[in-house]
Amino acid sequence: MAEAEAEADAEGQPVALCASSALEDGGLAHGWDVLEFGRPARAFVVRFDGVLRAYMNRCLHVPVEMDWQPGQFFDSDKRFIICSIHGATYDPADGRCVGGPCGRGRLKAVAVREQGGVVHWYPSRDIRPAPPAPSV
């Protein structure tokens, strides 16, 4: 992840996402809108084994968002990220597919870091901030 973070540092300024305390180990994720290669998409960050892990919210089997309910990605044992559509299972530590119809791939990692009690995202060349939603 250090290489991804270094690349992101050069590509964009950090974006504050949430308070560090909002992410409990194996708990709810914080999700946010991004543009991946210019197309709208979602990313999420979770805490697993005390470490922040962030990925694009897209299953490798079928490109759909994976959370069961908003922010709920972990299985009942809080050991794996699981896709709500087909049950593809991923290791939260590195995004590697460990079961189900997701092949041998990995979830696409997103660079995040904690600083001063705040979780920051570091945009990259491929994953940029989405424009603000229009006011109604």
Relevant terms:
single chain, 136 residues, mainly beta, three-stranded antiparallel sheet, 10 strands, 7% helix, disordered N terminus
Describe the structure.
The chain is mainly β. The chain contains one helix and ten strands. The strands form three sheets. A four-stranded antiparallel β-sheet has the order 4-3-2-10, with no helix packed on it. Strands 1-9-8 form a three-stranded antiparallel β-sheet, with no helix packed on it. A hairpin with a 2-residue loop joins strand 3 and strand 4. The chain is globular, with a radius of gyration of 14 Å. The N and C termini lie far apart (38 Å). The N terminus is likely disordered.
